[in-house]
Amino acid sequence: MDTDSLIVGLPAGSLADPSRGGNLINLLKSAGFPARGYDKGGPSAFPITPFLIGWDGRPQEFGAQLGLGEIDIAIAGDDWIRERVLEFKFEFCQEIAPRKILSLQRGGVSIVIIARQTEAASCDAWLTDMLSRNPLVTMVSEMPYIALEWFLAKSNALGFGQSHAAFSVQKFKTPPRIPAGIVIYETWGKTEAKVKNGSVDFGLEITQTGSAIQNYGLRIVDEIMTSETGIWANPRIKENPAKYDLARMFLLNLYGSIFAENKVLVFFNAKKEDVPRVLEYLRDNQLFGDEPTMNEGANFTEFSVQMDTQSTRLPIARARFDLATLGATHIETIPLESCIPGLSVVDF
After folding, report:
1. For 158-170, how does the pLDDT look when each residue is reduced to its tens digit (9 = 90+)?
2. How far, in Å, CA of 142 to CA of 274, rounded?
3. Structural domains in the chain?
C-alpha cells in the first residue's frame, strides 16, 4: 500500500453530478482539491495535490474498504457505512469500525420501515400481530442488514426472540432458505411497489420527504435512523503519521469550505467621528467575537465583518442599510470560499 499518499474514496453516482448531491465537486474545489475526471465518470485525480489518490467507487462499498484498509478515507452516507459494518457482523462474525470524522451537511435522509395500511395504532402492535400469525415473515430492503438489526431487536423486545431468530438475506425473490424467522430480500429500488403489491410483508425504505411512500398508499410504521453524507476514516490511519497528517490537512480544508458556506465578508469605511456609533452597532448585534477587525487610517477606519447570508435575526440587507445610516461608505460584500477557525476543529 502507498504509505506516502492519502487514498480518498470518491462516491460515484448523484454525488459526482455537479447539479446534484450537494455540489460535491465544487466543495472539493473550494477546499483546494480540484478533482479532474470526477464529474465525468472517472478516473478521478487531484492534479495540484498529487499526494491525494482518488478511488472511484460506490458509497455502498466504502464501509468494507475502510474497514479492511483498502482506502484511507471516504465520502459516504452514515446509512451505507452502517450497512457494511452490520454485514460483516452478521455474515462473517467480523468487526470493522470506520470512524466518521466530519459531517458535510448534505444528503440528509431517513431510514424507515414501511407497510401497507393497518388498523394497528403503533409499530409494536402491528408487528406483534404479524409475528403472532406468521412463523415466517418477509421483508424487502436495499439495506438488508440494517433491516435485520432492527427486526431482531424489535422481535426480541416483543417476546418473539426465539420463534423468529433465524434469518436469511436473499436476492429478490428467491425461495426462502428457512422455514421460520425472517427472509429479507435485497433489492435495487422500488421498494414501495414490492410492499404495495404484496410481494413481501413489509420493507425498509430510504426517504427524504416520504412523498413517494404516501403516493403508494403505504404507511411509515417506524423510523430507524437519519443519515447524512460525511467523511469517514479507517481508524488505523493514526498508526501511519504521514497518512494521518495528510488526512488532517484534507479534513481541515474541507471543514473550512463547509464553514464558509452562506458566509460573506462585509468591508466598509467609517469617518473617525462615526466610529463609536459603528462600534456600538456591531457590539449590539454581536457582529464580532473578542474584538472587531479594524484598520485605522488618518481620517477613516476600515472595518471587516463576517456575516451569515441566511440569518433571519439580522438579514445582511438590513445590516448594510443600518451601517450606511451610521455613516459607513464603500460597503463591499465578498463571498467566502473558505473560513478555518483553527486546527482544533479536525482533532480525531
Report:
1. 999 999 999 999 9
2. 63
3. 6-108+229-260 (3.40.190.10), 111-226 (3.40.190.10), 263-337 (3.30.70.120)
